[in-house]
Amino acid sequence: QVQLAESGGGLVQAGGSLRLSCAASGNIFSIEVMGWYRQAIGKQRELVALISSDGITNYADSVKGRFTISRGNAKNTVSMQMTSLKPEDTAVYYCKAVVRTVVPSRLGNYWGQGTQVTVSS
Asked: Exposure of 17 by Cβ count < 10 A (0-12 exposed, 13-18 middle, 19+ buried)?
């Protein structure tokens, strides 16, 4: 009932930049938190960056100063600008949203399908 559509992944050389975007749609009353996790091969999924409805951000230490998360101009969207990319940033990036649905009124976690980011050395 809630769908997350990601875009913007791809292949980039080390030191380059990419911008990821995520748009939420469906049975949405409000979005409390929205952001990104990533999972590299052989590793657990980890937090990258989150932004709350009132603009408070949270970043993994490994991306602080390089990645910037922001709410999009369109409603229920979020973007993340990734700069100074490193090979260790290579992973599948998943959009996550904590959504309060309209009917029934409840809070739930929703995930996108993931988008591949590959950083070559």
From this structure: exposed
pLDDT tens per residue across span 35-77: 999 999 999 999 999 999 999 999 999 999 999 999 987 889 9
Please tell me the distance from the alpha carbon of residue 62 to that of residue 42, in angstroms, as a whole number.
18
The DSSP line for the chain is -EEEEEE--EEEETT--EEEEEEEEES-SEEEEEEEEEE-TTS--EEEEEEETT--EEE-GGGTTTEEEEE-SSTTEEEEEE-S--GGG-EEEEEEEEEE-SSS--EEEEE---EEEEEE-
Give phi and psi for 49, each to the nearest 5.
-160, 145
Alpha carbons 2 and 103: distance in angstroms, whole number: 11
% of the chain at pLDDT higher than 70: 100
Burial of 113 per CB tally in 10 Å (0-12, 13-18, 19+): exposed
Give residue 5's pLDDT: 95
